[in-house]
Amino acid sequence: MVSIHTNSDTPVRDFRTSDSSAQTKTKKCGFRIHRVTNTSTPHFCIFSSSNTTPTSNTIMFELEISPFHLLSAFVAVGITSFLWKLITVRRFYKDLPKPPHSLFFGHLKLYAEIVSQFPPQTYFDAFYNEISKRYNLPEVWYLDLWPLGPSFMLLSTPEAVKHITIVQPYLAHEWTDYYLSVFFGPGGISGLNGDAWRRVHHMLAPSFSPKAVKGQVASITDHIDFFHSKLEHLAKSGKEFRMNDLVSAAMFDVVSSTLFGFSLYAQQNGSQFLDDFKIIFSLGPLYAQSINPLRKAVWWWKMRDARKRTDRVIDDKIKERHGALFGEEKYLLEEKRNKLSVLDRMIVQRIAEMGQKVEKGLDEEFLRIITPNLKTVLAGGQGTTADTLSYVFLLLSIHPPVLSRLREEHDTIFSPSYSKTISILKTIPTLTNQLSYTDAVIKETLRLFPIGFSSRQAPKGVTHLTLSSGKSYPVKNQTISPSMQLSHFDPNNFPEPTKFDPERFLGEAEQTFDRYAYRPFERGPRSCLGRELAMDEMRIALLLTARWFDFTLVMDKKSLPKKPKLLHTDWDTKIGDLAFQFAGMSAGPRDGMPMKVSFSTERERK
Ligand code: HEM
């Protein structure tokens, strides 16, 4: 019931008898709303005066509303605005390229149906690849996951990708910073933009130049030598092992040495730090993608201790290195530039900039910047190479001619002797650049099993992406993904795309496809900073193992499907669910990739 009162509490006008003069009068005034508590039915008064205390001249609107009516009103408003939003959102896609779209579900139902055909926690790039193959989608298409997910804009052609990575570089999507902050805290380089990104990039980049990376070859070699000895033990015992765990520990030692100047020795002693990283990476994606606050809280709690411990290790390392380096900065910057670890280089640079001000310790601002970035690089540098190498070993194990040719190259460019190979590596580190067939094997593995993913958003003021065909695509509020799998599995770029064929990356063959069609490290200013380091780690890992060991994947061959389950790949008929990469921090093999190793019959260790 709605009525108009004066302050005398006598209703002066029943609202249902629409008196235009009363309405006109009140429209001129500002209103205040008060809940009246001294009546049996809760109701609300709207005063036409801005004064809190009603006077004799105050006109009141009194609304007597029962809780039921109030609730119904809220529900009605909620449903109306939901439907309004639903129609507005769905209409946006009306004339855009997309898979079949429903007015009510958008692409949610279709997406759920696609996801259900994959094993749990599959790396999402495979979903886009499958959708694209199923509906033969063009160079740019959209995926509408409202209200449960973002609006995705998928790019597949070299021209579209080049546009947003080079011609007019788009920004790292704001979601990236949120996602990575779950793992490392806010401020990791991959989620930053503008000046904040330039600053961190400037701090890190010198440590990853080709020259600086060659300064790390001796240390990489020592860690891989230890990896080799672990394989020897396993070959003697004949025991099954998880290849991904073994390679992860080796890559962790390599990257921690590059970062801190000394290893965390995960291979020798096991590492609490690496175990903590594993906890964070297994729970982080679940936390970031869940919309259930209760589950989120539980996952956060479980990650809490691991995060605290990793933070403490990093803080201690920073303090320790600062203490050791203070006063030496000029000499170190001039004389030992290419031998410095990433952390040392950043610290001496900061001491040089700030002078005596940092005698007692490094400033808060600097620590806030480097802590999440050391963790980002440690994680980014370890998981990515470990996942890729695991797949390289797997592919070599089922392609003997490729393995033979790789071995030949290693004998020719280095030496058939293990100990001589080690000493050449340490004396002529640049020789790894000549391993062109090894590079081709790694590149082809990264084409079939790419582990990186970019999420971009349009810079301010940019509303459309216009391509040379004249077609123009809206970019506002889109999560823009230059999907690697879409490019890598496109037969226009790579004929017979699911075939493992390293020849594609040799000599002139490499000129037959557009370089923007192949982007495992992405392209442009935001491409991978650690590319050179990653390539050298993987080359050396192969150089010191491939000739001495044969690997076998442990799996039940009878369980392999006779026909491919999906359209975009037939790898499940050869390697089962390992065909579908597992979504962790990067895209790795499932169940650690169980393998057995034996000594190669072709040669003995000399
Ligand atoms: C097989 C190995 C690797 C692959 C495939 C790979 C792939 C990528 C990709 C695709 C990006 C761009 C992500 C984006 O566009 O948002 C990236 C960025 C980055 N990577 Fe790697 N990466 C690898 C190894 C490494 C290593 C060993 C390091 C360092 C130790 C490293 C450090 C970085 C950093 C710092 C960035 C951020 C660059 C920026 O935002 O400016 N990566 N990586």
Structure commentary:
This protein is of the alpha+beta class and about 600 residues long. The chain contains 22 helices and 17 strands. The strands form 6 sheets. A 5-stranded antiparallel beta sheet has the order 2-1-5-4-3, with no helix packed on it. Strands 6-7-13 form a 3-stranded mixed beta sheet. The protein is globular and about 85 Å long. Bound molecules: protoporphyrin IX containing FE (HEM). Protoporphyrin IX containing FE (HEM) binds next to α7, α16 and α21.
Strand content: 5-15%
Mean pLDDT: 87
Bound molecules: protoporphyrin IX containing FE
Order the strands across the largest sheet as they lie in space.
2-1-5-4-3
Main sheet record? 5 strands, antiparallel
The total of helices stands at 22
Fold blueprint:
Layout: E1 2-5, E2 11-14, H1 20-27, E3 32-36, E4 43-47, E5 60-64, H2 67-92, H3 108-115, H4 125-135, E6 140-144, E7 151-155, H5 158-167, E8 171-172, H6 174-184, H7 194-204, H8 210-214, H9 217-237, E9 241-242, H10 243-260, H11 266-269, H12 272-289, H13 293-325, H14 329-335, H15 342-354, H16 364-397, H17 400-413, H18 418-427, H19 436-448, E10 456-457, E11 464-466, E12 472-474, E13 479-482, H20 484-488, H21 531-543, E14 549-553, H22 572-575, E15 582-583, E16 587-588, E17 594-599
Parallel strand pairs: 7-13
Antiparallel strand pairs: 1-2, 1-5, 3-4, 4-5, 6-7, 8-10, 9-17, 11-12, 14-17, 15-16
Protoporphyrin IX containing FE binds at residues 172, 189-190, 201, 204, 255, 377, 380-381, 384-385, 388, 446, 451-452, 454, 520-522, 526-530, 533-534.
